[in-house]
Structures are given as structure tokens and as C-alpha cells.
């Protein structure tokens, strides 16, 4: 834990950029999974922090196979 806090204090700009990177991808993936009503993906993406890797895989590999269908009453 000491190593991580030392690295964060030595490189605050890089740490901030990594946080922003992760939040952007997580937000996009959560939005897409909620839109497609994929509850399991939503929970998985919400819980795991993979610095955007799982989120990118979901957006470009999994979610691309599904489409939102709007039904008008």
C-alpha cells in the first residue's frame, strides 16, 4: 500500500488521467448495458475496476451484437 500511495503522490497527473479514463469507459459501458437491459453485465462492470479494459471489451465485442428495440403502444 505504501508503494501505491508513493506512486500516486509522485505522479498525480497520470493518476488523475487514469481515473478519468476509467470513469469515461465505465460510464459508457454502464449506459449501454442499462439500455440493453443486461443486468448481469451492469453489475459486473459496476463492481470490477479494470481501468477500462472490461468496459472496452463489453462495448466493442458484446454490446455490438445487440440492438435496442423500441416498441410503441
Protein architecture, described:
The model has no long low-confidence stretch (mean pLDDT 88). The chain has 73 residues and is mainly alpha-helical. It contains 4 helices and no strands. Helix 2 (12-35) runs antiparallel to helix 3 (39-47) and helix 2 (12-35) runs parallel beside helix 4 (53-62).
Task: Please summarize the sheet with the most strands.
Answer: none
Helix-strand makeup class: mainly alpha
Low-pLDDT segments: none
Q: Helix proportion of residues, in percent?
A: over 70%
Q: What is the gyration radius calculated from CA atoms? A: 16 Å
**SSE string, helix = H, strand = E?**
HHHH
Average per-residue pLDDT, rounded, comes to 88
Termini gap: 55 Å
**In percent terms, what proportion of residues is strand?**
under 5%
* Number of DSSP-assigned strands: 0
Shape: elongated
Q: What's the total helix number?
A: 4
What brief labels describe this structure?
single chain; 73 residues; mainly alpha
Amino acid at each position: 500500500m505504501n508503494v501505491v500511495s508513493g506512486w500516486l503522490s509522485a505522479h498525480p497527473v497520470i493518476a488523475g488521467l487514469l481515473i478519468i479514463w476509467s470513469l469515461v469507459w465505465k460510464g459508457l459501458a454502464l449506459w449501454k448495458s442499462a439500455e440493453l437491459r443486461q443486468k448481469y453485465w451492469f453489475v459486473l462492470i459496476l463492481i470490477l475496476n479494470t481501468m477500462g479494459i472490461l468496459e472496452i471489451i463489453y462495448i466493442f465485442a458484446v454490446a455490438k451484437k445487440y440492438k435496442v428495440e423500441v416498441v410503441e403502444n
